[in-house]
Amino acid sequence: MKTSMTRKQWLLSGIVAFTCLASTAAMSGPIENYSPVTAQRLENPEPSNWMLYRRTYDGHGYSPLDQINTSNVKNLTPVWTFATGVVEGHQAPPIVNNGAMFVTTPMGQVIALNAKTGDEYWRYKRQLPDDLFQLHPTNRGVGLWEDKLFLATTDDHVVALEAKTGKVVWDTKVQDYRKGQYMTLMPLIVDGKVIVGGSGGEFGVRGYIAAFDAKDGKELWRTYTIPGEGEPGHDTWQGDDWKNGGGSAWMTGNYDKETRTIYWGVGNAAPWPGETHPGDNLYTASVLALDPDTGKIKAYHQYHQNDSWDWDEVEAPMLIDLQRNGRTIKSLVHPGRDAIFWVLERTPTKINYVAGWPFVFTDVWKGIDETGKPIVDPAHKPVIGKRVEFCPSLWGGKDWPSAAYSQRTGLVYVPANENFCGGFTGEKVPLKPGELWLGTKPEDIGLKTKPGADHFGELQAWDPSTGKKVWQHNFPKSQLFGSVTATAGDLVFVGGTNDRNFRAFHAKTGELLWEQKTNSGIVGMPVSYEIDGTQYIAIQSGWGVDAQRIQDALVTNNIGIEANVPQGGVVWVFALKK
Amino acid sequence: MHAWPKDPNTSVVRSASRLNEILIIRLDPAELDEKTRARAVDGIIAYSAICSHAGCPVTAWVKSDVGDKEVFKCMCHNSEYDPRSGAQVVFGPAPRRLAALPLALADGSLSVAGNFMGKVGGAQPG
Questions:
Q1: Hey, is A79 helix, strand or coil?
Q2: pLDDT digit string (tens) for A454-470?
Q3: Residue B57 contacts A, CB cutoff 8 Å
Q4: Average confidence (pLDDT) over B72-98
Q5: In chain B, positions 90-109, which contact chain A (CB-CB < 8 Å)?
Q6: Is position A310 annotated as part of the catalytic site?
Q7: Which domain, by its residues, includes B34?
Q8: CATH of the domain at A120
Q9: Which residues fall within 8 angstroms of residue A460, CB to CB, at 6 or more apart?
Q10: Interface ipTM
Q11: B63 and A CB contact within 8 Å
Q12: How far is it, in rounded angstroms, from Cα A277 to Cα B34?
């Protein structure tokens, strides 16, 4: 029998159909049953979670999960993806706390997702000022404490969000973005303190590390990375150079919970040519050991003196117990931007030099003296009024992307770049607050590839106990510009190449075991987590910032590489095919 | 050349916001496309100095990475703009051209003839 539908019936059925659709669509809303984050959980994180920048305070970038391993990684497959709707460099690790995932994007956005299904709970969009300009439009993640998240922004604020809803709890201005002061790092959380460091080494800032009370955003302490008048180390500067000497601190520190010491990397001296700021320039290009309660400097090690190459040493060293020459060393391991693989010893009052060796070609250092100071070749140190070439390039042997350490293999995995050199002509330029202050013409900065180079990016595996390289994987047509993560499945995950691939390597042999082409290039950090007995691997794919700058330089060097690595962020989550 | 606008009535230089900074260049009028020539004075043209990508200042006048001509370049992320054809993007991540500022001669001196054509400032995400 034919039926005819009245207009009212049609409307009603339409409502029913809409209701059905809505019930199957992703539900946004507050996170229910959010697990508060405590000191104990951060100090001994559950294997299933990734709540700190490198998962653990020691900075290893290592997951103890092993469901995905060398024998089955070939079955790794995407289980969900999520487009962020934002372009530029997506450098943040997806942070996971008992099923809730938080990703940050460039332009100060935070997205809360169901880590199992990919459904969105909420999104925070920072309203950035119209007159803000971003030399590094990126962000590296949110810190967690109790029921809050903490975001450091490019307009130089620290913002606390309610984890369940994304609502702003407090918003503290740190410094003035109009003067080139900004932040891109994931805050380090220690015992209810939100600890951040400022960017701006290319704008003549005086770097600092500062702590804020997680409860209300009140500043608890601020330690400048360049000593002021009367402070130890001030005499390594001349005149007023220290006031604008750089030393930005734009990466998350690591933390020794036994001695309650933070280890924080410090960036380049400003402006770039060392001739414009004579002296050793403490504490630029250094690691600082700080008391998290007061910010007091306990110890330091300066990787290289009178920095002249823009070689920020901002990636915090990994805290590794090393067996070396028959004794256990509480070490700090740092594959440096200055091309030296550093092994140091941390004691409660001092950082001692243990060993150092070049992990990529460098013509800048003639050697390292017994105290750990590299001996510079003046022919490759930039000066005023003359073009000077040096290897590696401004981006160094390894830039900020993190190395990883596997507790199973005892190896350190380094995202290195080889066959790149750089150069510029130094010049004296007056500082104008808020404007680039490099000590050279920006258009004069060069990245050159070595003639006949058969590759650029290198994933290297080093034994830090012996100083021996165990394996290396070369990337013939790409830089390697992404953080590395190791797992107990004897896998090493990394993106970082201009072919958009995400890869898994055998941690012991370097064999390439799996790869997946993604939407964009990956400059972010892989993480691993577990929900309901399933291990997941997550990564943000979203090319930009310095990976693209190197890409532009590769194109200019005419080596048959396309400039166009597509941009746009997507969160990818993988698990084993069932 | 980098410049700031000045109010002809009050002589106030509008330099409080960096969004007011402009680029002025003189080129051979024959090189300019029709629309660009229409807002130029004897080959002199003006654009916003704010890159449409991440809002950095466009500071360089250099040979393009992808051609033989000299272009405006933002050194933050290498976006390049050709001032001869309305500052259209010729290289880099910038999503749109620089905002143009029409010029005219008023009482024998170079003056601003109207509002910016196009949006001043960097891109905001969706």
A1: strand
A2: 999 999 999 999 999 99
A3: yes
A4: 94
A5: 91-93
A6: yes
A7: 2-112
A8: 2.140.10.10
A9: A359, A413, A414, A416, A469, A471, A472
A10: 0.86
A11: no
A12: 50
